[in-house]
């Protein structure tokens, strides 16, 4: 009896060893142990490097490193600062009007420029009357128009950002290359360009207003000429009553 019991025990052990369920469990445990070993030995993934940003039109940053993300090249002004009579093209009559307004009524020219930049109701009157008041105070107290440029130079910065135009500082750096070393980032460049816009309005105020007016008339339609949808009601045609 003892011999038979030992044989049955050996058969049971052999059956357990040959069972596919037990073999599957052993394989799963081996795979899990290998996976744990790989996770332990795998090095952590470093975080992505911070992207650098450049500045484009309207002061919007775009990332470098790709064709789409590369900064847009600055555009040139349509006319120079001292091109008083404008250019000989289809806008020549408008350029003569801008030159006349800049010489006789700079407040009107500044108001129309501000109206084209922001077509909100009352834009022309608010900017024109404010400019006119500063114009009279400056001429009365100091003998020349020294206060209005402090108010109007921001329009030049707005035009430069809106159409991604080249600023005075960038043009000077491109021509002589002596100022590029003092620029650390794009934010500092923008501050320098804004300072150059202010200096341009103080030293060459009328010429700056005329240049901005010529630029806006070539790129922005006057808000008064915007087409508005209208409903036309046609009267019914003449009707006659037939007799039977």
Automatic annotation (TrEMBL):
Feature: compositional bias, Basic and acidic residues: 1-18, 25-39
Domain of life: Eukaryota
Residue numbers spanned by region Disordered: 1-57
Entry's transmembrane regions: none
Protein name: PLAC8 family protein
